[in-house]
């Protein structure tokens, strides 16, 4: 890799409604220190990338509501590198917008695109994977994604089917959306499926060409907009389809590779996935401030530093914030999105 | 009954540790509005008695820590009628102390003794029972207690065994402590058992004589103490045994009657008994501020007016206060006392 030419785009526009009331529209998931590490998820993401990408080549694209919060969490980034999306779209418009900014900085750039709110351990391994992906993109002019070796038939992740070979770099056959349980089990048995990490690597020029070819609606809306004219950008952004980069480009492009990510990874997409990464007591309870009696398998997250006691309860998610208290059985955490929907109506 | 001669003693020294964290040593059960009626339990108790006992003949005996709180809750009572116990004893010393104060006001008084923290509905019926009990005590010089017709084999109450007759006034055979389940079932089947309400009626002179005869240790400690000399009172009180009036007197006296209480009553001794008296939704959830999804049989008490959501959980007791949060399975509420004990150690 060529450090001079390497850029990164951190996507930080999500609201993480599955984590209500801990994560809210005003203070979404990426700004929280979910695992009690002392740093927010977005700050971890920046630090992880900053080991091999210069701070002035790291862009953060977020909702316009969160621009100030991003600057607070990552003061190292030049102000102009924090870009507020005028409106909520999916990943494809966001990534194309980033590409246009980078195009103005270096016409020959390579780009790493990463979500702000994932958990990655083993950062050395992560760095090696990224380097391999950058080299692959440079050599083959391909779109590269990092795939995670699945450890269980998780139905909460998308999967990537690849052609078996002996290399760490595989050719992608197809992307598969979140499967049902039996399909996920079949994927694991087949052995040529990775989890889709949502981390992408490519040459910036290839991305801009790829969008032009496969998603002309985005190209039409944003390719000629003056990036300093917020009103024009807003109009262009509104005209973009709400579409993911997986669906818009990766599934359609011809040259798509996946590099095996051998680092520990979680999208922290559910409380269940957060729970997996927390330290637990002998009875499987996680939560630093709580006292557990005859209780097991519980997750307690408390923003108020309250005295919390759980007695004779199992497998609960307990989230206490200054404004709200959620007590939800672990098996029902997919209901949290509906709860949030009901809150915003009432 | 003769209103002029009728006095009442409200016993308000308990701390209700089974209701942690809602009820604490600083702010115990009797000062809470448990059922959301707009009045504290002690205020309800005063109002109920004040219908037929003049305010200046109602005494409150409480721990010295709570004297000011009592005065706040019941400003109608003359200040000197609120008596602070120097130390924590059981009901017998408290009742004897009340008797000595009343002796100084009227040597011919009749007395109603009632706990501050019970729930009583149907106050007209309550009044009729009290009047019958006062007349009985006057006519027979007996110690009278109100018994409640048991509606279920509750193991949380003491029982009173009586001689069957056709009157509302029965002769007590014996007091029975909290039974196990099968014993309680046998009591119900036998048909001559009431729950012990802990409400007593007698002539003040009989009570003083009864204590002198059956619990000379209390008489020795308190009979000659100058009630205005707090240090002497403290010394006398410390010398008293920690003993209930049931055990000290009622089980030993010869003339003991029980009047059938046909009003609705609960000692609100557990969250389960509080829950029974709260309004519930179609799924048996009680708690005004909470939102319940796929949840049933839960009790939520919230002092913070927080947004509380329960999702897919059953039979929980959830108590949220400014300082603490308790989540306890209903079947385990007897553990709460141990939890409080652990808290006070830590």
Q: Strand sequence of the main sheet of chain A, in spatial order? A: 6-9-7-8-10
- Give the CA-CA distance, first to last residue of chain A: 52 Å
Regarding quaternary structure, what we see is homodimer
Count of DSSP strands of chain A = 16
Offer a quick outline of the entry.
With 346 residues, chain A is an alpha/beta fold. Helices cover 32% and strands 25% of the residues of chain A. The first copy, chain A, has helices spanning 41-50, 67-73, 91-105, 123-140, 181-190, 204-214, 216-222, 230-239, 245-250, 271-276, 336-345; strands at 6-12, 58-63, 82-85, 110-115, 119-120, 143-148, 159-162, 169-176, 193-203, 256-261, 265-266, 290-293, 299-302, 307-311, 316-320, 324-329.
Structure description:
Two copies of one chain form a homodimer. Chain A is α/β, with parallel strands linked by helices. In chain A, 32% of the residues lie in helices and 25% in strands. The first copy, chain A, has eleven helices and 16 strands. In chain A, the strands form four sheets. The first copy, chain A, has a five-stranded mixed barrel with strand order 6-9-7-8-10. In chain A, a hairpin with a 3-residue loop joins β15 (316-320) and β16. In chain A, α3 (91-105) packs across α6 and α6 packs across α7 (216-222). Chain A is globular and about 60 Å long. Chain A starts with 5 loop residues before the first strand and ends with a helix. The interface between A and B is medium-sized, with 31 and 31 residues. β14 (307-311) of chain A pairs parallel with β16 of chain B, so a sheet runs across the interface.
